[in-house]
Fold Ammonium transporter AmtB-like domain-containing protein.
Amino acid sequence: MIGSIFLWVCWPSFNAATATPLDAKERAVLNTVLSLVGSTMATFMLSQAIDRHRKFDMVTIANSTLAGGVAIGTIANVILEPVYAILIGFIAGIVSVLGYKFLTPFLTERIGLHDTCGVHNLHGMPGLIAGIVSVIAVTYPEDDYGASINNIYTGVRSTGSGGRGYSYGVQATHQLAAMFIILGASLLSGALTGLLLRLKFWRQLDDEAQYSDAEFFEIPDDFERVTATARE
């Protein structure tokens, strides 16, 4: 939970670090905080609501509360009404909690996908939400940005650029295409990584050795006895 608190506090700076100009940095910080608030509310509400004992699940509390920071990442620097930033985070929190509760066990049981750190629930699905909302956010009028529009969308035409560049509709199409390209690259690179790790020339460990440090570290003489007692 200490790590989650640090991430919650620092996430606005993650999203604002590369934003230009200064007003875009300020928007990125504000939008990220609001989105994190939305995901935190959704996490605490849903985590307890779907638990049969009506208790909070610490896995979702430590992770899904951060989903809003991921989901707002692509549009943190654009102009948003505060309610939209909160709504994006709220939706991301719901999706993340449901992923931890239902999707991860389903994938583990059906296809043997062991997402030990919940990356799909905190980064994968909220990242997909970020890609979708980036397409929608292009529809904001140019006048709202003033002279900084080409700092936000470098490819679009604006009043000050003499009519050069893409229309906002084309820019939205490019955003959508980029999302599918990234999704495809992620699936391909993940599949290749899995195939490489399954090759026999790597140093393979049997099931019992996977839970022992003896293969790679100097250990105390009584380590195996203590480990065996703990397993029992």
